[in-house]
């Protein structure tokens, strides 16, 4: 339970533009007070011997710190404006769902944090400068001013990096690769090489379900509306095992749940009370948007949305759509080599305790290919690449249901192309790719 909540909190913080800059601002405050204390103690270390420390007067120190503070806050405002423009460009040209990737970009967060931290540091040191250098009570924090100069130089380097970074992250290839990276990470996280265990007696799952389950099971209602971002299945297993229950989950991560709808069916239903209902609801993490934390379909939808926007009449960019199909084929090939866990979860005594919402390879294949096939059926290049992608994925499939799902999509692609493509030579090219798929399958 704790790990799932911590993961959700970290995901929210990592997707914000305030968390990392706030940490860097706190570090800047601590650095300013540390340098000032060293200046008051007169400890400069080897910097004074090497001649690397600021040796000017109070007026010069004020000018330096004022220049650094004024410059970096102006650059910070410009950088923030450029970031907002990049977000708007990504939302309009690709899909609003990739904004989350931009929000998680550590480079932008570091840039904003560096500028803000340098500004705060300069202000804190500037307020301590007294006199003009000749007064008895004058104070020129030479070490602190030197560090301020170094931070100013570092800000220039960060600005150069930001100009390059901002022009890179809005490129279609970069956005597609980031979505593909999330897809592969989600597959590695949710579908490790060996997951779950088989029962020694290998009895059919339907025999483990009580015959009166549908009659005597009682629904636990959702207490809020939103997208299911994560489910703590270990907590549900503990609940079911501790009270000898059988829980059937009626949703899975990525699905939208309406308040008051059935969340979990509990058997036997007479054991359901308010405390149990609250505990089951606490095992579900809801949010305003989908995340890839436990939803492997979300990065697939991102790639599909980019492809659909690319082949729309307003943009007409089939090359970008083909890049998305290539990454989808890589992700599905990766998934085809993994063992998808059973929806039936047993305790250590081989008692069925939790029935999860089933997930299978065919469902993710539908999410990857259906919409692209429907909207791109008249684009010969997109059709051919989809058939080539299916042939690539087929080489990694290891069971008949997965191959049947791929065959079904190949058949639908061929059927739709016969209706939408008028040129006979194009049809022949498509037929050749289709036959290549059948040969692999």
Automatic annotation (TrEMBL):
Ranges that cross the membrane: 16-36, 68-89, 110-127, 139-163
Pfam families in UniProt: DUF2254
Source organism, top-level taxon: Bacteria
Keywords (A to Z) from UniProt: Membrane, Transmembrane, Transmembrane helix
Protein name: DUF2254 domain-containing protein
Species the sequence originates in: Scytonema millei VB511283
């Amino acid at each position: 339970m704790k790990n799932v909540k911590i993961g959700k909190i970290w995901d929210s913080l990592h997707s914000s533009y305030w968390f990392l800059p706030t940490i860097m601002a706190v570090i800047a405050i601590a650095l300013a007070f540390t340098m000032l204390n060293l200046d008051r103690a007169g400890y400069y270390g080897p910097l004074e011997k090497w001649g690397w420390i600021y040796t000017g007067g109070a007026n010069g120190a004020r000018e330096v710190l004022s220049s650094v503070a004024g410059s970096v806050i102006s650059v910070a405002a410009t950088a923030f404006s450029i970031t907002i423009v990049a977000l708007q460009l990504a939302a309009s040209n690709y899909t609003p769902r990739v904004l989350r990737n931009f929000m998680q970009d550590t480079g932008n967060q570091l840039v904003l944090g560096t500028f803000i931290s340098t500004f705060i540091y300069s202000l804190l040191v500037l307020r301590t400068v007294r006199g003009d250098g000749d007064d008895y009570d004058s104070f020129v924090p030479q070490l602190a001013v030197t560090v301020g100069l170094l931070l100013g130089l570092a800000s220039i380097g960060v600005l150069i990096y930001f100009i390059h970074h901002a022009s890179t992250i809005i490129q279609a290839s970069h956005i597609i690769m980031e979505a593909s990276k999330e897809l592969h990470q989600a597959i590695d996280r949710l579908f490790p090489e060996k997951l779950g265990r088989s029962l020694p007696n290998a009895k059919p799952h339907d025999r483990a379900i009580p015959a009166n389950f549908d009659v005597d099971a009682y629904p636990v209602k959702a207490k809020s509306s939103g997208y299911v971002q994560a489910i703590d299945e270990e907590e549900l297993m503990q609940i079911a095992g501790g009270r000898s229950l059988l829980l059937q989950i009626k949703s899975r991560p990525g699905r939208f749940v309406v308040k008051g709808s059935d969340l979990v069916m509990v058997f036997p239903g007479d054991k359901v009370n308010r405390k149990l209902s609250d505990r089951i609801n606490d095992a579900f993490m809801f949010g305003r948007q989908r995340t890839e934390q436990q939803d492997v379909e979300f990065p697939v939808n991102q790639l599909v949305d980019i492809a659909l926007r690319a082949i729309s009449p307003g943009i007409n960019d089939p090359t970008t759509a083909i890049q998305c199909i290539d990454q989808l084929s890589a992700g599905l090939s990766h998934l085809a080599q993994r063992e998808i866990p059973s929806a039936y979860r047993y305790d250590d005594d081989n008692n069925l305790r939790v029935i999860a919402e089933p997930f299978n390879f065919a469902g993710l294949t539908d999410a990857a290919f259906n919409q692209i096939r429907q909207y791109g059926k008249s684009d010969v290049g997109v059709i051919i690449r989809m058939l080539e992608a299916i042939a690539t994925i087929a080489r990694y499939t290891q069971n008949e249901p997965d191959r049947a799902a791929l065959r079904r999509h190949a058949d639908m692609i061929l059927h739709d192309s016969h209706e939408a493509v008028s040129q006979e030579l194009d049809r022949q090219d498509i037929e050749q790719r289709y036959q290549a798929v059948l040969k692999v399958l």
